[in-house]
Design goal:
A 7-stranded parallel β-sheet has the order 3-2-1-4-5-6-7, sandwiched between helices. By secondary structure, the chain is of the alpha/beta class. Helices cover 48% and strands 15% of the residues. The protein is globular and about 55 Å long. Strand 5, helix 5 and strand 6 form a beta-alpha-beta unit.
């Protein structure tokens, strides 16, 4: 097991990609603290992970609120007896869909940046001091390949994913001397309920069908297949393990070639 006896905090760890990452990390020997805004789904997953023989704690927290993040990290340190080896920032939001930049409400834009960027910055900020003290740490940020190229009618979402690249690369520089690796995974469209919602919203706005929108995404991918949550989880395991010990400040793009 590549993460045997390691400890991890994962934000947005209950559903979609986050849920698959959490289960895969547990199978690789990791103990986890799962956090999301609502307790129900993460508690259900935590119970499943306990059934796999790993330790798991569910903590409800809004990662855009600093006091809640401080409390989360304190609870994780107590649960893990003072050690936090890995942080996976998987929490995120989609924001306005099929909306040109001049029609996006200012508050919607700012809310999205807060959820996707501030919600990633604060957990990193409050976990890094522990990683510095132990002279070891792995931070894995889940961004998006719309941060690798422009994304029509998704200015807010794309802006937030570009910002994640800046946060990742600069954090890697700041933390490198403390033996902390900071990297990002940039998924393309992933086969999750969020993809279903996105295709339905696009179809409604454009007067097309769900199937047509789904096919349009697939047609843009050289590999002609949609990324799965397990594809993302596999990369997360690599970045969280010592197999990636000399990799930092980088993005792994997993999108079937969409951003190529």
């Amino acid at each position: 097991m590549r993460l045997e006896n390691k400890t991890t905090i994962i934000t947005g760890g209950a559903q979609g990609m986050g849920g698959t990452i959490s289960e895969t990390m547990a199978r690789e020997g990791c103990d986890l603290v799962l956090t999301a805004r609502t307790l129900g789904p993460i508690e259900e997953l935590a119970e499943k992970i306990r059934g796999m023989g790993r330790r798991a704690l569910a903590v409800a927290a809004d990662t855009t609120e600093e006091d809640q993040v401080e409390s989360l990290v304190a609870k994780a340190k107590e649960f893990f007896h003072g050690r936090i080896d890995i942080l996976v920032n998987a929490m995120g939001a989609t924001g306005p869909i099929e909306t040109p930049v001049w029609e996006i409400e200012g508050q919607d834009f700012m809310d999205l940046l807060r959820k996707n960027v501030v919600g990633m910055f604060l957990p990193s900020k409050h976990v890094i001091p522990t990683m510095i003290d132990q002279h070891y740490g792995k931070i894995v940020n889940i961004g998006g390949c719309s941060g690798m190229r422009g994304y029509r009618y998704r200015a807010g979402y794309s802006s937030s994913k570009w910002a994640i690249r800046g946060l990742t690369r600069t954090s890697a520089i700041d933390c490198g001397e403390h033996n902390i690796n900071v990297n990002a995974i940039m998924p393309g469209i992933v086969e999750t309920p969020r993809m279903t919602k996105l295709c339905k919203e696009k179809a409604k706005t454009k007067g097309t069908t769900f199937e047509e929108e789904y096919a349009e995404y697939v047609a843009e991918m050289p590999l002609k297949r949609v990324t799965t949550p397990q594809d993302i989880a596999n990369a997360a395991i690599f970045l969280a393990s010592d197999e990636s010990q000399n990799l930092t400040g980088q993005e792994i793009v997993i999108d079937g070639g969409w951003a190529a």
